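Students often ask why inverse folding is considered easier than folding. One informal answer: many sequences map to the same fold, so there is more than one right answer. In these notes we will look at a single instance of the problem. The structure comes first.
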């Protein structure tokens, strides 16, 4: 998945506001976790520094991915009751079902039934029904126990034992650094150079296309769906009727298709076209719910909806119900102090973060870094001041009590 530049600059602007944004809080906590929690005496100097822009990037990527994949998903129920969902995020558990057993579990099960297990994320798959706790497992599913022994219609491949591409590597592969792309037909993931040895990973135009909104059909699948070839065209956006293009011939040296943006909308839905797709067992291509973009949009809009609900009064109400009126005031007091402190802390790095976006273009390529010591000092100071304030408050209370 790629992030677009407009979105990035938008987010950078928000960060420049005077107060501490939610993202800064998250980043600060991450920073604290990573650095303060890391004080195990290891003296490797490469551990000492994390650049601000690296951290922002990491945080943004993670948050964006989470929102896109999980935004509208239920973390606490098993999707088994919904049958073969058109699309869902899936995992495998190598602890419960080691190779050669092939089984997939839903998001809810990954969270509730396989805590601490070795999980592999499979991104999203079509028409799959959760296997958790069925005959492939020894442990029962904690969310929905009454499953059939097997889900007959699930289609498994090597992904379900944690291997990807023609090279049969785990992800990430310790041997191959190249990015992987998912085939829209077989849904396996591939290094493009393993599909087409002439594929130039350094070709920026090509990379942009690969990471754009189109879809890839791998070399194993193009022979099954040769009729999709006209949907590669970026200039001709007319509807393609497969029945009018009987000769489906694919050039010999063609190793993959790169279907252009909104290619699904261009598929003709006449009876003959549907018959052709049914023959090729790919009629899901005209199901909007099969479309990853639709899935992602649904997740993102849910996240937005939730964010809009989290207004300040809503947060205040939640705090009061959790801690009582007086407790809520103390919590808010502490949070506000922490916010002020962090705003000052981040102020020091603001110029650097603004530069972070452009640092790759900068000939000097220098970045100020946030060090472990900076963060230790910052949180140490905040902690001290908080303790002092608390002590004063306790004193006041005791004083008034006498
Ligand atoms: Zn499940
Ligand atoms: Zn497990
Ligand atoms: Zn389960
Ligand atoms: Zn490969
Ligand atoms: Zn494929
Ligand atoms: Zn047609």
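Output (designed amino acids):
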């Amino acid at each position: 998945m790629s992030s677009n530049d407009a979105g990035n600059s938008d987010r950078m602007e928000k960060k420049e506001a005077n107060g501490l944004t939610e993202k800064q809080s998250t980043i600060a906590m991450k920073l604290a976790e990573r650095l303060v929690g890391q004080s195990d005496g290891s003296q490797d100097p490469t551990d000492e520094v994390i650049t601000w822009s690296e951290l922002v990037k990491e945080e943004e990527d993670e948050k964006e991915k989470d929102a896109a994949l999980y935004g509208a998903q239920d973390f606490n129920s098993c999707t088994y009751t919904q049958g073969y969902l058109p699309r869902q995020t899936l995992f495998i558990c190598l602890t419960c079902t080691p190779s050669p057993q092939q089984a997939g579990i839903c998001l809810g099960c990954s969270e509730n039934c396989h805590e601490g297990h070795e999980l592999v994320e499979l991104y999203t798959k079509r028409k799959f029904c959760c296997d958790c706790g069925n005959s492939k497992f020894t442990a029962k599913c904690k969310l929905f126990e009454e499953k059939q022994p097997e889900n007959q219609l699930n289609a498994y491949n090597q992904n379900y034992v944690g291997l990807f591409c023609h090279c049969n590597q785990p992800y990430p592969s310790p041997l191959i650094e190249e990015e992987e792309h998912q085939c829209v037909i077989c849904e396996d993931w591939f290094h493009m150079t393993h599909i087409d040895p002439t594929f130039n990973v350094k070709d920026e135009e090509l990379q942009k296309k690969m990471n754009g909104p189109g879809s890839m059909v791998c070399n194993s699948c193009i022979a099954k769906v040769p009729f999709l070839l006209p949907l590669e065209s970026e200039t001709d956006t007319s509807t393609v009727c497969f029945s009018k293009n009987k000769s489906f011939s694919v050039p010999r040296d063609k190793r993959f298709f790169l279907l252009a943006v909104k290619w699904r909308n261009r598929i003709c839905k006449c009876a003959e076209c549907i018959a052709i797709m049914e023959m090729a067992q790919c009629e899901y291509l005209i199901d909007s719910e099969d479309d990853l973009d639709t899935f992602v949009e649904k997740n993102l809009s849910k996240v937005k909806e939730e964010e809009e609900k989290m207004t300040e009064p809503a947060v205040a109400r939640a705090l009061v119900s959790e801690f009582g009126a007086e407790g809520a005031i103390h919590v808010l007091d502490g949070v506000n102090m922490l916010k002020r402190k962090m705003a000052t802390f981040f102020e020091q790095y603001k110029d650097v973060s603004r530069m972070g976006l452009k640092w790759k273009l900068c000939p000097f390529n220098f970045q100020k870094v946030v060090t472990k010591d900076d963060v230790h000092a910052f949180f140490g100071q905040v902690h001290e001041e908080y303790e002092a304030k608390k002590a004063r408050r306790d004193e006041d209370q005791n004083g008034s009590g006498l």
